[in-house]
Amino acid sequence: MFAQLIQDPAKINYVENPAKPPEIDAWGQLPKLASTFDHVDGLFYFTYIVCIFFFVVILGALLFSVVKYRRKTWDQPAASNVTHNTPLEVVWTIVPLIIVMIMFAWGFKGCMDMTVVPEAASRNTYKATAKQWNWTFTYPNHATPSFNEVWIEVNKPVQFLCESTDVLHAFFIPVMRVKRDIVPGRFQSVWFHPIEIGEFHLFCAEYCGDDHSRMYAKVHVVSAEEFATAPWDKWDDTTPALAAKSGESLYKNLCQTCHSVNGTPAVGPTWKGLFTKQGDTFVGRQREVIEGGAKKTITVDEAYITESVRKPDQKKVAESPYDKNNMTAFPDLDERRIKGLIEYMKSLAAAQ
Asked: How does pLDDT run across 35-52, given as a tens digit for each residue?
């Protein structure tokens, strides 16, 4: 799989839709902090320094002993017959215990800070739905969701109520210093207070299947004025060409993880050849599907594609291996966006 991604990097979602590279600190360890959770950095560097200090001390003592007390002749007697040193053993037990308890208390306080949601954040609650292999975000007081991109307001605490529709996932935004496992069958909450405008990375941090590494989203932190314009709800479909362009953008955000447009085999069937152009008319191809356990031949049309987006198991492609794979349903995808995807599919026929 990794060799395939290296050969065809355009298939990787974050290459097609890059956010700005993360800013690394002088130690080369963490991206620039963009939230109020600075205690995470303090604990990280405390642990880092403790590890370096004891590594140097222990390695230095070991090398010193190896050189100074090495056997110089075969009959050289032992340098010491002491088998143990109780005060020394007490010291190297108590000191690490104290350090570990400091780390525990520091980490526990940080964990409580992240999991106990303040009232200001609870009044600004988003829903993040994780599924193989994409994210759907539902906004407070707004009916239109966004996919693999989310917009939040700067200097305003925000809570994400996370759920999974299939397997274990994780909500991880390094620059905000937050990570929360998402367990199927239950809601997990995480909150943070963004303090810097910009585009940042959101990753799934739990292995969730073949395309786990491509389960990526962008976090847009914007001003209150820009947020008020609902930038996630911009959709230009005034002409078929503009609808196709909007559909292409949605494809790159939502669909390219599983569907290619050039005939390359993927998790789902390719979109290449779904429509052919005859004059000014687009004609859907014939396709064998399985409906109700029986095979049948259908003509690809707008109704079939709409049904496949919202109820993908209704008519599964009979061709192997697609008859064994499962597609995620997108019931929240509105008619305009589905129409844009269809126009994009038709534009592929025009380009052939």
From this structure: 888 888 888 889 999 999
